[in-house]
Design brief:
InterPro entries: Bact_solute-bd_prot1 (IPR050490), SBP (IPR006059), TAT_signal (IPR006311). It contains 20 helices and 14 strands. By secondary structure, the chain is α/β, with parallel strands linked by helices.
Length: about 425
């Protein structure tokens, strides 16, 4: 759920907040208390949680319940750093030899962090879990080994302002629509006289700009990194995807938000000046608060096959000795069990980590009162994740520059992709 450097990355943590009917009492009495440490006292697990106030409040309640059923373990929610700054802090901590037992690490950052021998292999823990979605497992797998525990999930779909569709006489899209239909629909929704755009696209060049393009690349048969890992895997597919961006820009039907986070774009959408946006479930509270009559539909595709992207985050475990590793594993096993996961999902802003969580009455009640939420959950069946590769940030930065240049009409798709490939390939050939 990483949209680096954006307030949207923080807002999404609260997209399901305020569900008053869900009890916050402990429900995992079957978990046997972990043994005390070798000194005879409780084992303390230090967690750098990375959350804003909303997520931290949910963790506080969950930790209090955990303490009641696991007297041999004490959880210290320390760290004092938001998730956006976690990579830098963890890197410094590993260099100094003073690091936490668990840290909240963005999925794309895991490959860099996992190069440290202090990162614990948790393959058996995840294998014994509740049956995590495949997309969640993919996000924590580095070179065939599971190096973290899934912590939060999202996905992308299209939010439509039904009032603008009705006003322009434009039919609402449905599953199976194409990117050509997306561009055509955006044209029909655009009214230059009233300052209304058919759609919007974050234009700061960061990850929020980039990850919207990957589903197009995958659908066309490309990949982020090519076979052998020495170059990009979207030299041709990237041009075709950028042609969609070019067509939107040429039709003047896309609002380009120059600021990180896309906040201006989302404000224009909820204000009735954008007809549809590609977004995630984190935007549902703002849409609901704006009293917008909306529809959530799956992303378009080129092939007719469903395709989207998920941006999972992780709980990464570090080795501070056998007692603390075992205590950390015990806590994460408890936290990701559906009984706790559903509380975290609803309170802090994640899609369910497993189908078992999705099937719980509490989640079903939440989906019944949140239009569009089931569409986002349904996409987890076929979503893909960005590669867990240490050079991904450089590849993303190169593609972000290319997308912005096409959005602004400064380069053709072919020229923009050619420059992207030069920078990205150079990063990929560096030994890591």
């Amino acid at each position: 759920m990483d949209v680096r450097g954006s307030s949207a990355a923080l807002n999404r943590r609260g997209f399901l907040r305020g569900f008053g009917g869900l009890t916050l009492c402990a429900t995992m009495g079957a978990c046997a208390p972990a043994p005390a440490g070798s000194t005879g006292g409780p084992v303390t697990v230090e967690i750098w949680h990375g959350q804003t106030d909303t997520g931290k409040k949910v963790l506080d309640v969950l930790v209090a319940d955990f303490h009641r059923t696991h007297p041999g373990i004490r959880i210290d929610l320390g760290g004092g750093v938001l998730a956006d700054a976690m990579l830098q802090k963890i890197t410094a901590a590993l260099a100094s030899g003073s690091y936490p037992d668990i840290a909240y690490v963005f999925g794309p950052d895991l490959a860099s962090v996992a190069r440290s021998p202090q990162v614990v292999d948790v393959t058996d823990l995840v294998d014994a879990g509740p049956g995590f979605w495949a997309v969640a497992r993919d996000a924590v797998t580095v070179n065939g080994r599971i190096r973290a525990v899934p912590s939060a999930l999202d996905s992308l779909a299209v939010a439509c302002n039904k009032a603008l569709f009705e006003k322009t006489g434009t039919p609402l899209p449905s599953a199976g629509w194409s990117w050509a239909e997306f561009v055509d629909t955006a044209r029909k929704l655009t009214d230059a006289g009233s300052g209304t755009f058919g759609t919007g696209w974050p234009g700061s060049g960061d990850e929020d700009t980039v990850w919207r393009l990957w589903p197009m690349v995958w659908d066309l048969g490309g990949d982020v990194i090519g076979a052998g890992g020495r170059g990009i895997g979207f030299a041709d597919q990237g041009v075709r995807a950028l042609e969609v961006v070019r067509d939107l820009a040429a039709a003047k039907c896309v609002y380009v938000d120059p600021k990180p986070g896309g906040e201006q774009m989302y404000q224009a959408f909820t204000g009735g000046n954008i007809g549809m946006v590609v977004t995630g479930p984190w935007q549902l509270p703002d849409i609901t608060e704006a009293r917008m009559d909306y529809e959530i539909v799956p992303l378009p595709s080129f092939s007719g096959r469903p395709m989207t992207i998920s941006g999972p985050d992780t709980w990464t475990v570090f080795d501070n000795g056998e007692d603390r590793v075992q205590a950390a594993r015990t806590f994460l096993s408890w936290l990701t069990d559906p009984a706790q996961d559903v509380r975290w999902d609803i309170g802090a802003g994640s899609l369910p980590l497993s189908r078992r969580t999705q099937e719980l009455p509490a989640w079903q009640e939440k989906t019944s009162e949140t239009p569009g939420l089931p569409v986002f959950v349904g996409t987890l069946e076929y979503a893909k994740v960005r590669p867990v590769h240490p050079a991904y940030p450089q590849v993303s930065a190169a593609l972000g520059t290319a997308i912005v240049s096409v959005l602004l009409g400064e380069a053709t798709p072919a020229d923009a992709l050619r420059e992207c490939a030069k920078a990205a390939d150079a990063a990929l050939i560096i030994p890591r």
